[in-house]
Amino acid sequence: MSEPSARPESDDLATFIAGLPKAEIHVHHVGSASPRIVAELAARHPGTVPSDLDALREFYRFRDFAHFVEVYLAVVDLIREPEDVRLLTFEVAREMAAQNVRYAELTLTPYTSVLAGVPIEAFVDAVEDARVAAERDLGITLRWVYDIPGEFGLPAAEATVGYALEHAPDSLIGFGLGGPEIGVDRPQFRDVFARARAAGLRSVPHAGETTGPQTIWDALEHLGAERIGHGTSAVQDPRLVEHLVEHQIPLEVCPTSNIATRAVASLEEHPIRQMHDAGVFVTINSDDPPMFGTTLTREYEIAAGLLDLDEAGVADLATNTVRASFLPDDGKAELAGEISGYLAAWQERER
Ligand SMILES: [Zn+2]
After folding, report:
1. Which cofactor does it need (predicted)?
2. Is residue 351's pLDDT more than 90?
């Protein structure tokens, strides 16, 4: 048995992955701000963060989780006005579109923007303006997930569900819960999730990233989770694995993020192989890509290495994300058809 490798077997596979039409369902708004985007924001708000691209690339060189938090908060501090929100959203869409991402469910945290002084109405206008422009100019469809920053507890949860119920843009489809898991138990958010779900929003909390399988059970039982953000610790509980397989509940797996946050010690020890072999519904995502020094394309390369996938296997994995998405059936069929068409054209050329 060969050691799993983090690199794809061939340059050809990397080329295939780069051109592959993709969807992404676990990616954060602020966490997707690249050095290029931050340079633009920093130029708008001179002072705390360098606007020189080389200096920013150095600032972004991933060191450890504490450094990630430092970068994240520095970016949060640059998002002060509706125009900052619009710019960030459109430019994040541009970087996804450049990787052939056709559809993304992007997690927004309106609570922190409102805290920074952007009124919720202006926040909604800014992201919607960027969404419409991105669809028109970049050919990428965006939908929103509002997430509760768990570290702010119930007041943030109440505020976030209020924004979701009273100021929701049409393109809001999901309701999530992020931030730390330790000390932030899931059941306390039961009522808030019930209200969001009653309004038609889909439940997509993070769970089992930095805590054990019980948090995943809690997310399923108390928050009505339809997908699990990360779910890394699921493999520690055979009964949970069985449940996830039986009900085909998708896990939003983000390999590099799990290493960066030390949820998993190394890529070689990542449980994705175990999940995949057990029949768990696995999807590949990038979480906070530039801050963890990755891209969605790179995450597929890593997954291909860890799961020993060829082009057809990678296409299947990409189709999983489409199936796990909240696109309507015709949208799913269209994107899945684009993926299978791309694979067929590739195999034809290889012949
Ligand atoms: Zn996340």
Report:
1. Zn(2+)
2. no
Query: Distance, CA 1 to ligand 1 centroid (Å)?
Result: 33
Rounded to the nearest whole angstrom, what is the distance from the C-alpha of residue 26 to the centroid of ligand 1? 6
Closest C-alpha to 144, from 102, 175, 177: 175
pTM over 0.85: yes
- In the chain the domains, ranked by start, together with CATH numbers, are 11-350 (3.20.20.140)
Give the C-alpha distances (Å, rounded to integers) separating 140 from 104, 123, 187, 299, 323. 8, 20, 35, 19, 17
**Ligand 1 centroid to 206 CA: how many Å?**
7
21-78: per-residue pLDDT in tens? 999 999 999 999 999 999 999 999 998 888 899 999 888 888 887 888 888 889 999 9
Closest CA to 207 of 291, 24, 196, 226: 226
pLDDT digits (tens, 9 = 90+) for 195-212: 999 999 999 999 999 999
Structure tokens at 201: 């929003």
pLDDT of residue 188: 96
Query: Burial of 277 by CB count in 10 Å (0-12 exposed, 13-18 middle, 19+ buried)?
Result: exposed
Which helix (DSSP H) or strand (DSSP E) does residue 155 occupy? Answer: helix 153-166
**CB of 155 closer than 8 Å to CB of 307:** no
Q: Which two tokens stand for residue 15?
A: 């080329």
User: Of 91, 95, 181, 209, which one is the catalytic site residue?
Assistant: 209
CA–centroid distance, 211 to ligand 1, in Å, is 14
Q: Residue 301: CB partners within 8 Å, gap ≥ 6?
A: 6, 7, 8, 13, 14, 17
Lowest average pLDDT, out of 46-50, 91-95, 333-337, goes to 46-50
C-alpha 30 – ligand 1 centre gap (Å): 11
* Cβ-count burial 4-25 (b if 16+ within 10 Å, e if not): bebebeeeebbebbeebbbbbb
